[in-house]
Amino acid sequence: MTFENTLEFAKQLDSQDQLNKYQDEFLFPQVNGKKVIYFTGNSLGLQPKRTKEYVNEVMNDWANLAVEGHFYSEKPWWDYHERFANPLSKIVGALPSEVTVMNTLTVNLHLLMVSFYRPTKTRYKIICEEKAFPSDQYMFQSQVHFHGNTPEDAIVEIKRRKGEHNIRLEDVLSKIEEVGEELALVLIGGVNYYTGQVFDMKTITAAGHKVGAYVGWDLAHAAGNIKLELHEWNVDFAAWCSYKYMNSGPGNASGCFIHEKHHNNSELPRFAGWWGHNKERRFKMEQNFDPIRGADGWQISNLPVLSLAPYLASVEMFDEIGMDALISKRDKITSYLEFILYEIDKEVASNFEIITPSNPSERASQLSVLLHGEGRSLFDYLMEQGVITDWREPNVIRLAPVPLYTTFEDMYRFGQILKAGILR
User: Fold this and answer.
1) CA–CA separation, 101 vs 88, rounded Å?
2) With contact defined as beta carbons under 8 Å apart, do 215 and 245 qualify?
3) Using an 8 Å Cβ cutoff, are 412 and 14 in contact?
4) How far apart are CA 383 and CA 278, in angstroms?
């Protein structure tokens, strides 16, 4: 498609957008009496209007039924999490038995590493990407120390080539082959939080397995954002947060994937708790742990239903729309934003460098932009004008045009505000 940097063209694209109506499903902050242009769904998604209804339902059941809400509310609490299995399985490309919800993201990654990071004297190394999200870095360091090794020896970072912003697939594959029989685990962010690069998870997973390692993925920036086929790709495990692209609220519950090939492996260690115990016998209070066959068998404690309610509201919206429709708009609106940035770049003295891959198959709902010649004052101006974006030192703004609630008109108006901020 040939884009135009005009308000009329942007409105025309919105009129053709089948998802445009979903913008009215969300609550937007106001700045200067106007709805903001929201680019930070890659940090915290907006609140769906239906969320309050789902939370109030739990509150009312608690008020009217108290403990009996576990079994007699309209959505009984004891199996509330099971309502996620079908919609989440479609979002991440899994069997319903392979997904569950529990805890928060880094907690779940730690717990999954109990099962899938089992270092020996000779096979103990972890491969991750350079500039992984800090929480992942801290997790790797603490896990390695826990097992009696040093991060300098056990953690292998795949680095970007000099002068490049993104990691090449061939460098990932060659590093996996190089570490070889010393490699215990490959654990990478499916979408890099800083650059927005999408990794070839299928190819990397196969390469890790070829040398005898487990392969897992941190899908914090991938779940609800890109097409995933975790079961088909033979991924061992994965976890993701729900508050970014899936709009479940700050710090909310995490999702987990454990491939079915591991479900009946009694030799695989895990930290157990009663909510992962045989569901039909859970309340018999038996002494020995009998795990549920499936991802639910990795649960530990009974689940925080008040936290799950907003997440359920969101995944049911995803189920209405489908990932294919979301991705179709995602690609179009991200490309339009890219076009707008380059058009504004022609009109100002500053230079914009988009460090996110230009290939649509290697990016999703994020463009990370180096603003050469500009500083923090431009970010502050954008915020004052109602453009909610994200600043990363030294001069990068991350822009996430989430297809559920951003419009093509938002992209056009952002361009005009950006230009005014540079020329002011």
Assistant:
1) 9
2) no
3) no
4) 51
